[in-house]
Write a structure and sequence with these properties.
Layout (H helix, E strand, L loop, with lengths): L1 H13 L2 H14 L1 H18 L8 H28 L12 H17 L18 H75 L3 H9 L4 H5 L3 H9 L15 H12 L5 E3 L6 E4 L2 E4 L1 E3 L3 H11 L7 H4 L1
Antiparallel strand pairs: 1-4, 2-3
Helix pairs in contact: 4-5, 6-9
Keywords: Signal
Length: 321
């Protein structure tokens, strides 16, 4: 059994896909139930995908008409070609038999469909026309004149549109020039006013020796209009002749109690001083007994660290000690 299965598998592997499909269909035809089921599925698929003529769009209708006409022309050409190819070489002169007339009619119909239709049926298009060359020439001249007349009208309309656009942009350019000149005149006047005021403020700030008056002048530049301006530094430099960093900011005034409380709290920290062991190592101040503490560093270093931790606090070394 194993050998037979191996032989069958090898035989199936040697078959091509087309042969396998053919064998499958032959087996299906031998089974009527499977064949009926397959046909039923095909019918259902066809009815599900088919589209009626009334369901087509206008574009699809046009495409269908084009396809019909193109297919008809193709069939006529094939028939005419078959008639020509199957005609024997030594044929007797054609008679008015029905067969010959049908062949001529078929060839002429194929030629008419393949060639473009002629719009005019004037005598000049007829091969054996008696129209002279002079008449044809005059007609050609008239056609050329009418064509030139139409082209001339189109060019005039285009020129009119271009001139209209040119005038529009010219007026716009003149308006922009007037605005620019007005802005330049106004900016020059404003620049002169600014220079006069800045020189006056600079002179006043330089001559004043009182700190309060200097602070009053500096306070002008703390207004919202100056703060929100991006040119704040330039304004301060030009008006006061100093950088913004050199302007001393007003520091908040702390009360003495607050300063002393902060200093005491600083000294009582364990990283600044340490308590002495022993009951008798105490100090009494206003009936308050407190343990003695030794400082862990000298006063100058402690003052530097205190100022670093409290930069906004105005405290001198004398007050700290």
């Amino acid at each position: 059994c194993v050998v037979i299965l191996c032989v069958v598998c090898a035989f199936k592997m040697l078959l091509t896909p087309a042969e396998k499909q053919r064998r499958y269909r032959e087996g299906r035809k031998n089974n009527p139930e499977k064949e009926a089921e397959t046909k039923k599925k095909d019918r259902e698929r066809y009815h599900a995908n088919k589209r009626l003529v009334r369901d087509l769009t206008t574009r699809e209708h046009r495409a269908k008409k084009k396809w019909r006409s193109a297919n008809a022309r193709r069939r006529d050409k094939v028939r005419a070609l078959n008639v020509i190819m199957h005609t024997p070489e030594s044929t007797p002169p054609r008679s008015n038999s029905p067969a010959n007339t049908d062949e001529v009619h078929l060839i002429s119909r194929a030629y008419r469909r393949s060639s473009t239709p002629q719009r005019s049926t004037s005598r000049e298009n007829i091969p054996n026309s008696t129209t002279s060359a002079a008449v044809r020439g005059r007609k050609q001249v008239k056609r050329n004149r009418s064509e030139l007349f139409r082209d001339n009208i189109k060019l005039k309309e285009q020129l009119k549109a271009v001139n209209k656009r040119y005038e529009k942009y010219k007026k716009r350019c003149n308006r922009e020039k007037q605005k620019r000149f007005q802005n330049e005149d106004g900016s020059q006047a404003n620049q002169q006013k600014y220079e006069i005021l800045s020189n006056a403020i600079k002179k006043r700030y330089k001559n004043v020796k009182n700190r309060q008056e200097k602070y009053a002048i500096q306070k002008i530049f703390e207004e919202k209009t100056v703060k929100s301006s991006r040119q704040k530094i330039r304004i301060i430099k030009e008006c006061l002749a100093v950088d913004q960093g050199h302007i001393r900011k007003k520091q908040p005034v702390f009360k003495e109690k607050v300063i002393s409380f902060k200093i005491k709290e600083f000294f009582d920290r364990d990283d600044i001083s340490r308590a002495i062991a022993g009951k008798k190592e105490t100090v009494s101040l206003k009936k308050n007994k407190m343990q003695k503490r030794y400082l862990l560093d000298n006063m100058k270093n402690l003052y530097v660290s205190f100022k670093r931790e409290n930069p906004a606090l105005r405290c001198s070394y004398k007050t700290f000690t």
